[in-house]
Amino acid sequence: MTDSSLTTSAARLLVLVSLLCWCLGSQAHELRPTVADISITPDFIDISLRANLEALMSEIGPTHSDSDDAPQAMVYDRLRQLPPATLQAEFQEYLTRFFSHIALTSDNGTRLPMALASISIPPVDDTRLPRDSIIVLQAARPSNKNTISWFWASHYGAIILRVDSAEVSTLPIDSISNESSAESVSEADLVNSTQPSTVTQYVKPGDISHPITFDSNGVNTRGSGFGDYILIGFEHIIPKGLDHILFVIGLFLLAPRFKHIAWQVSMFTVAHTLTLALGITGLFSLPAQVVEPLIALSITVICVENLFGDRFRISRLLIVFVFGLLHGLGFAGVLSDIGLPTSQFVSSLIAFNVGVELGQLAIVLICFVLVGWWFRHKSRYRAIVTIPGSLVVGAVGLFWFLQRVQLL
Amino acid sequence: MNFSKRMSDPCGRIQNGLADQRRPSAILLQFLSTALSLILLLNTGTLRAHEYWLDPVGSQWQIGDLLQADIRNGDDFVGTAFPFDPESLARAGLISDSKRQGLRGRLGDYPAFQLPVQEEGIHLLLLETTQRQITYDDLEAFEKFLGEHSLDEFSERHQQRDLPETDISETYYRYCKALLTVSSSSGTDLNFQTSAASNDGSDAVDSQNATHNRPIPALQLQDQRLELVVAENPLGSETVSVQVLFEGVPLADRQIELFHRNESSKVEKTIKQSDDEGHAQFSIAAAGDYLLNSVWIEESPDSSAHWTTYWASLFFQQTNKQDD
Prior knowledge:
A: 53% helix, B: 6 helices
C-alpha cells in the first residue's frame, strides 16, 4: 500500500510537471484535422497528408487538455523546435510505428502496404503556432479491387479525406433570420446540402472511413464527372425546375407542329446557354430577386401569346430568345451553387447544358405523347388544347410572379 | 492495492490512517504535487485562444485575382489557420459594390476563404461560425474571462442566477469581418497618381467619386448578432471610428480592443470603451495590420448552456504612406 501510494504520487508529480511545462512552454494547440488528398492512378494510390507532423509523432491525441496527454505535450514541444532535416530524420525512425497505426485496406479487408514517397517540412518559424508538413504516402494499387478504406489510430486525431473531384459547398452570404421567407429557407437548405459523401469525408478520431470507390481507369466513379453534370442539368428540369417545365409546355402549346417546337426550343437553348456561360464566369449576373419573378412572368407572357393565334412569327422567336436569356441566369445561379471544377470547366458546363437539353426534350416528348399525338390532326386543336392549356399554365406563371414579388 | 479493502472502507479511513505512516519522500512528492497544482490552476482559462479573425493573404488585389484569407484563431495576431469546413460556418462570403458572393469551398481547403475578385472598390469579407461550446472548470476561470473583456458585472449576475461555481458552460459564436480595397492599378488608391498606366488611375478616381454619392455596401451593417462597423474606409485614414452593435442596437460602454502589428511584427494592444452611441475612435496612422475585437455576453437563450458569448472582429491593413 505504501509502495503503491509512492508510485501514485510520483506518477502524479510527473504528470503535473509535464503539464506545467506544456502550459508555460506553448499555447494550447488546438488540434485540427489532417487533410488527406487521395489520387488514384492506374498503378498507384497517392495520399498527400497535410498534417501537424509533431502532433502525429508525439501521439498527443485529440483530447489534448487531458493531463494524460501531458508527457506527449513535452515530446511535441521538443519536436516543434527541430529544424526540418532533424525532424525528418526522427520521422524516418518513427515511420514503422506510423505505418503500424494506419490501415489502408482494399474491399476484401487486405491491408495495402504503404511507403513514404516524400515529405516536406517548413522551417521552425514561430513555435507558438503549429507547422503543417506535407507527407506523401504511396501504395501500389491492387488489381481488380475498386474500393479502399482508411483507418488510423485515434491518437492521430480526425482526418479529412478528399478524393480527386470537384465537390464544392456554398455558404449563404446573407444571415438566415427567424422569419423564414421562401428565399432564406432555400439558403438554409443549401448549407445542409453538404451531405455525407464518400468523395470528401470527415473521419472522426478512431473511426474508419466510408469506402472510397473508383473504376478501372482510376477515376473516382462517384465524383462529379461529365455524367454527373448531365444528371445535375437534367434534374434541374425534371423534377426540380417546375417553372422551366411550364415554360417549355407553354412553347409546346402554341401548335402541334414539330418545326415550330424545334425552332422555339433551339432558340431557347441558344439563349440560355449564352447567359449560363456569362453568369457562371461572373461576367454578367442579376440578383435572384430580379431573375426569379421574371422567369415566372415569362411563362404567362408565352401563354398569353398562345391565346392570340397560332401564327408562327419572328417576334415569337425573339420573345423566346429574351426569356431564354433569363432562364440561363437562373441556371447559372444553381450551377454556381453546385460549383464547377476549374480543371474541367468547359466540359462540365457543356455537360450541364446537355442535361438541361435532355430534360427539355423529355418534356416535349411527354407532352407530345400525352396530348399532341392524339389531337394534332384535329381542326379544333386550339380550342381543345392550346387555349385551355395556355390559360391554366399562364395563370400558374402569374401566380408565381405575384408570389415572387411578394404581392401574395 | 487491495480492492476489497477499499470497498469495505467507503469513507477512506484506512487510507487516511496509512497516510501518517508514509515515507518522507512520499510526503515531499505530495507537497510538490499540490504546489504544482496551484501553479497550474493559475494557468487555466487560457485554453480558448481569444481572437478569431479573417486574415487576407497578400495586400494587393486586382480584378480576376483569387482573394484568399485564412481563418485564424489565436492571441495577439499569433493564430492557427483553420481549414474550410462548411459544418462549422453559418454564413460567409464577399461583399463588394454590386456583388454578394457566398463562400464556396471544399472541406479541408487552405486557406479556408477563397473567392474571385470581380470588381474594384472596397470589399468586405464576412464570416460567422455555428455554435461552439466551452466549459470553465470553475468560477475563477470564468471571472478571468469576464475581467479580460470588462464584463465583470456578469459575475454578480452569475450568482444572482444561482448558477454553479464549477463546470460553467458557455456557447459562443464568432462574427468576423475583413475590409480590403481592390484598385485597378497595381497600387492602392493612395498612390494611383504614380501608377504607370494613367488610364487606370483616372478610373480609380471616377469609381471613388461615384461611391461617395451612395452607401458603400462593404461598410453597411450586415445583420451580424454582434457587429463591428466602420463609417469610412480605414485605408489611408489617420483614425478610425468604429461602432459596436448587438442585434442592431449600439452597445454603450463596451470594451473594444485594437491590435496593431507593425511592419517589424511588433504587436500593440489598445483598449477603449465605446461611448453612448457605441462608438470608439482609434489612431491608425501607422502602417501594418489592424484587428478590432469586441465581446458581448448574454444569458443563454436555451438550456444547453449557462451563458452565450458573441465575438466580433474586424481586420484591415494600412499600407505605407507615400512621402509627399
